[in-house]
Amino acid sequence: MASPFLQAFAEHMRVRRYAKRTIQTYQYWVANYIRFHGRQHPQHLHNAEVEQFLSYLANHRQMAVKSQATAMNALVYLYRDFLLRPLSLELNFVKSYHQSKLPVVLTSNEVATLLNRVPKQHLLCVSLLYGSGLRLMEALRLRVKDIDLDYCCIRV
Questions:
Q1: What UniProt keywords apply to this chain's record, in alphabetical order (predicted)?
Q2: Torsion sign, CA atoms 62, 63, 69, 71
Q3: Domain count, the chain
């Protein structure tokens, strides 16, 4: 069960109509930040402690650039919008340099083999995912009205 502080933080974000997943992610990073600083209340922490935490993510946890950026965004939101004590614009922390893993690209034969093994009832959806770059939920929510046969395009 989340602490009353984290529950109030999540409620603050819900009132401002943030996505459920964003709220969960920001709660996760704020909770990690609090744990990192020995369960001190964020009201008693500020720039130096945020810099320590973000540097720790890069140096010791070897976080990807995007993960560190997400953690920083969560803390910026916490201090700017929830605690009303904005952080300095010039935070001095070690930035992650680890690049994301490159995607695996299949050869034409591998794609053909994959599509041949997909059950027939899923073939259209999988072909759309592969050929158009749609995300899973975009493909699953497609309706007939989204497909424009005159222009050979799909409206997402």
A1: DNA integration, DNA recombination, DNA-binding
A2: negative
A3: 2
